[in-house]
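Researcher: Next sequence.
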Amino acid sequence: MITRPALARILASARERNAAVGAFNVILLEHAEAIASGAEQAGVPVVLQISENCVRYHGGLAPIALASLEIAKRAKVEVLVHLDHIEDQDLVREGVELGVDSVMYDGSRLPYDENVRTTREIADLCHAAGIAVEAELGEVGGKDGVHAPGARTDPAEADAFVKATGVDALAVAVGTSHAMVSRTASVDRALVSRLRDAVAVPLVLHGSSGLSDDELRGAVESGMTKINISTHLNGLFTRSLKQFLDERPDVVDPRKYVRLGRAAVEEETARLLRLLAA
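Model: Next structure:
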């Protein structure tokens, strides 16, 4: 059994090696299984991310979080369970009680001063429980905000925010956007380098599904340390199921086709993790 480490420790190690940790969103139980298996194939750590949308889909945090925690515990590599884009502070508290490894608290819709205050409160709460905290300055692209392709994070403001909140990692806007179904986005590598020099904690790239392999490597080489990917894997999952059902519309046992989606996610997770860790 592997003891689940703090996200801060794993990110610090990756940052020192100029590598990155892959963080992939869990939608169904099969996603968690596939991502953990892919990490075992690659032989590197991975982060299972659970968003508020995922919590709403499952009718609560505990069912999907406890299942993910059990999968993480049984894995042969370090697998962390992370709450992603959590705006509900009660949900953060529940996650702490359940034993998640880290939390991305999203106060980006709040005025700056209130974002700083609430993020600081969440950081204090989580740190007291040995849980790492990720945060961001503004809203994320695809959600009317700072990770829209044209938005950019100011290095001086990012440094001030980290110092004021005490967070362990910071999501920054450098050209990506959430929910992209084509890998055509590009990263402002010069800005990433400036942010890495300015900010004392590891940098997180949201909306990475829109990046090609070359852009992902460029982002990591420039200074990104945690790479979040969701839509890209969901596309592979869905296409695998659709192809099978188009060819075999008579099949009614979901295990016969959902396992194909799980296998596709596992294979791509392993490939992406090797790419990011290189």
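Model: Strands lie at 21-25, 46-51, 79-86, 102-105, 132-136, 169-171, 203-205, 224-229. The chain is about 50% helix and 15% strand.
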